[in-house]
Structure of FAD dependent oxidoreductase:
Amino acid sequence: MNKIYNVGIIGGGVSGVVTALEMAKHNIDSILFEQANSVVNGPPFCHLHAGGNLYPDISDEQCRILMKQSIAMARLFPESIDQRPTFISVPKSEKYDIHTLLNRLDMLVGYYQSLIDEDPSNEILGAPQDYYNLYTEADLIALSEKPAYKRPSTPDQWMANSVKLIDYKKLKTPVILVQEYGWNLFRLGAQAQLALEQSSNCSLKTNTNVNHIKDVRAESLDYNWEIQTKDEVYKVKYLVNSSGYKTGQIEASLQLKTERLIEFKAAYVSKWEPQPGLLPELIFHGERGTPNGMVQLTPYAEDFYQIHGMTEEITLFKDGLIKSKANEAQPQFNEDINLKLYKGWATKDVESRTENAIASVGQFVPSFKTATVGGPPLFGAQQIRGNDPNLRVGEVSFPSPFYARSEIIKASSALTVAHQIMAKLQDENIIPALANTSLENEILEAIDTEAINRFASQLAKERGYPEALSRLVIERQ
Ligand SMILES: Cc1cc2nc3c(=O)[nH]c(=O)nc-3n(C[C@H](O)[C@H](O)[C@H](O)COP(=O)(O)OP(=O)(O)OC[C@H]3O[C@@H](n4cnc5c(N)ncnc54)[C@H](O)[C@@H]3O)c2cc1C
C-alpha cells in the first residue's frame, strides 16, 4: 500500500472512535483498526459520571473533570443518553458520612453553573438548582403514600416510585436524587460506526488485528510508522494507541515500558417483573472490595436491569486487578479471566454471579429477589495508568514524538483525549492550525435516529444481549 495516512489509530473503543471522528470532522485522514467486527466492543459503560457521585472517595477535582467531560460527551452523543436520574444512598451499616457527599454536591452545583455561564449549551443536566434533591425520612414516608408514576417527570415522582420498593429504614438519611444519567453503549457504538463508515476521511478497518508496529522515524521517510496486519502494511505519520487494556501489547513492539494496572470487571443482566412506574438508577454505597461493596441497579427497557456489585463474588474478581511487572509492558491475567475474555463464560458462572448480584440488590429492594438471569454479563478489561487503582480520570500521554497513548478510565474522557491529540498534531506539524473548536460534529449529526435504532439493535443481538438493551428508557423527544 503506497498511501500515507496522517494518523493511524489502533483500537475502535470509545477512545479510538471519538479520536477518528474528531479527525474526520477536521478533514484529517486517518485509518482506524479494530480487531472485532464492530466498534465499541470492549468493556461496557452504562453511567454518565456527570459529577463522580458513584465515588465517595475521589477528589473534588476528579468530580469536576468527570462532570465537564461527561457534559461534552453527552453533547456529542445525545442519542445515547438516557435522561433518568440516579438515587444515591448510604446504608446505615456503612462508614460514609452523607454530609461529606452533600458538601461536594454543593460544590458541583456551583461548578455546573460556571460551565453554563461559559457556554449555555452545557445545560444538559437540567437547571443547576435542580442538579440534586435531598429527601429526609419524613419526606420518604410522605412520598411512599403517593401513587406510582408510569413516566415520572419530577424528582419527587422518581423518588415516589423508588421509595415504594426500597427498604429505606436500612439507609442513612437524607437520601439523594442527582442528575447523573444513563449512557447506552450500543447506541453510541452504532452512531459512531455509521458516521465513520460514511466519512471519506476515515478508513475504518474492522476485523483487523494489528500484529506489529515498525518504528521508521529515524529513516527520513515521508512517514514515521508501519502498522502491520495479517495481510498488509500501512504507513502513517502519527500513531495513536487506543487499544485499551492491550496498550502494553502494542508498546512491546515499540520497546516502551511503563507502569500500568489492568482490571477485569463484569456487570449482570437481569429481568424483573413489570413495575408500575419507571425507576431511577439505584446506588447503595459500600466499601469497594469488601462483602458490602457498592450495589448499582441500572434500569433498561422492557424490565431488564443491569447490576454491578463491588465485591469479588459479583463485579470484581480474585486477581482481577493486576499491575505490570518490571520486565513486561503488558500485564497478564490469570487463566480463569483469560478464558472469560477470549472464550466466553461457563453457564454456571453466569448463573451464580447473576444470582449473587440479584441477592445483593434484594438486601435493599426486597421484591427484586424475584428477578432472574436476563442475559449474558457485560464484561471486559480496562487499564489504569500508573499504580493508583482509585484514579477515575485518565487521559493521554505522549511518550515520544509522533506517538500518543490514550489511557482513559471512564468513557467520558474520550473527547478530551481526542482534543489533546489534535493539539499535538498541530504542535508536531502533522496538520495546520485549526480554526474550528466547536464541540459539535456534523458527521455524527448526519446519522438519523432510525438508523441508530436499527444498528444499535443489531449490535445488541449480534453480541448475544436482549435487544431491549439497545433502547433508551426515556425516549428522546
Ligand atoms: C464492568 C465495567 C463497567 C464500566 N462502566 C462504566 C460506566 O458506567 N461509565 C463509564 O464512563 N465507564 C465505564 N467503564 C469504563 C469504560 O468501559 C472504559 O473506560 C472504556 O470503554 C475504555 O475505552 P477505550 O477505547 O480506551 O478501550 P476499549 O473499549 O478497550 O477499546 C480498545 C479497542 O482496541 C481493540 N484492540 C486492542 N488491541 C488491538 C489490536 N492489536 N488490533 C486491533 N484492535 C485492537 C479492542 O478490540 C477494543 O475494541 C466500565 C468498565 C467496566 C469493565
